[in-house]
Design a protein that fits this description.
single chain, 150 residues, alpha+beta, 5-stranded antiparallel beta sheet, 3 helices, globular
């Protein structure tokens, strides 16, 4: 089998989303990993900061007739993934919304039953591909991993 292209990644993600049962979720992540703070310093320094390599992710959750989508947040929204200011602006331009609640520092996008149909699932898959390819700068479609959580 040859190398996978971005069109195939989009098709695979859309097929995964079509197969999501009520109350299940899926998550996709992509290379390249970036160094980031994975644990913030707290308790007056008693618990020290930890750094590590992290990958950007997009996740989806199907509840009733709604598809909830999230993308890892950056420091601009209280998250830990090291998106630059230009990448933050690009995520918003793609259609991601900044977090509604400070306790959940992820970009979001929600499609409801009124938006229903396979078109929504294709749009959700396209949003993930554009996030990974155009904003993250992932050059390796084969590096996108997908996991379904039941």
């Amino acid at each position: 089998m040859g190398r996978m292209g971005w069109d195939e990644v989009e098709e695979r993600l859309a097929a995964t989303l079509r197969g999501l049962a009520e109350g299940t979720s899926a998550v996709a992540d992509a290379a390249p990993a970036r160094e980031a703070v994975t644990r913030r310093r707290r308790l007056g320094g008693l618990v020290g900061e930890r750094r590590g390599m992290v990958r950007a992710y997009v996740q989806w959750l199907r509840i009733d007739d709604t598809l909830h989508c999230e993308c890892v947040g950056g420091p601009q929204v209280g998250g830990t993934f090291p998106w630059s200011d230009a990448e933050h602006a690009a995520l918003l331009a793609l259609g991601w919304s900044a977090p509604v609640h400070a306790r959940v520092p992820t970009y979001t996008r929600v499609w409801t039953g009124s938006d229903a149909g396979d078109d929504v699932l294709t749009l959700a898959a396209q949003l993930a591909v554009r996030t990974f390819r155009d904003v993250l700068g992932s050059a390796e479609p084969d590096g996108v991993t997908v996991q379904v959580n039941t």
